[in-house]
Amino acid sequence: MRSRGWRGSACGDTNPTNEPIARSWKRRTWPSRCHWKHSNSGVCDFPARPGLSALTQSVLWSPAVVPSVLTLAPAPEHLSLGEAPPLSPLDITRDSPEGELAFYGGDSPLQTLMMPGSDPTKPVVAMIPFDADMLGRIETLTRLWRSLRGQRPPPDTRMTQQQRRRLRRMIQAADGHMNGASYREIAIAIYGEPRISAESWKTSPLRASVIGLVKGGLDAINGGYLNMLRHRRRS
To answer: Could you tell me if 85 and 124 lie in one domain?
Structure first.
């Protein structure tokens, strides 16, 4: 059953459990945002539609906070690139102060930043800074390189399947908490009534688990989600 979170919430757009958390609490009314201002959250100033899941729309990010956004520039004349495959067509493009933000579809969708003067139909080079995120950028570049050549790209390693499942539970738990659900109500929605009723709630390890999910979800909402957009840094 689809959970009944408020329109635009994670619960309203995901289906992580069989029980709706939001059925038992009073929904809050949130003020609408009429003006879009610059923030340090990493996402660009033009809005995403809050009523749609992130899986059904494209959200463009600043490369300053999401290293997997590949910065591309015109290839210098002294480089012999041979038959370099074009990047076009790019699915979605938006102008930004840094250049043109775009999505390259292919078998492994990813985002690019085309520096001023770049032409996706002509040879380009990727700019890879020597910083702590260099290996993550190289991994993303490898995915693009293989996709351009019709090869199967390697998977995105920023999040494992287990981490994705936990993230869904964290966001669902935080959504319920912000709408007034008790920890026990959240636990029932996530783990099911029979499992929760089988033991004392006060001493149940699932109680501690739900408290941790709520805390993790709130931390993610308050900016911690940015850590999920980076590759794990290697020492």
So the answer is: yes
Residues 141 and 168 in one domain: no
Render pLDDT for 161-217 as a digit per residue (tens, 0 to 9): 898 899 999 999 999 999 999 999 999 999 999 999 999 999 999 999 999 999 999
Please tell me whether the overall predicted TM-score, pTM, comes out greater than 0.90 for this model.
no
Q: pLDDT tens for residues 64-99?
A: 888 889 999 998 888 867 777 777 667 767 888 888
Whether 40 maps to a domain, the answer reads no
In three state form, how does the secondary structure of 76-133 look? Answer: CCCCCCCCCCCCCCCCCEEEECCEEEEEECCCCCEEEEECCCCCCCCCEEEECCCCCC
Q: Which domain holds residue 128?
A: 69-149
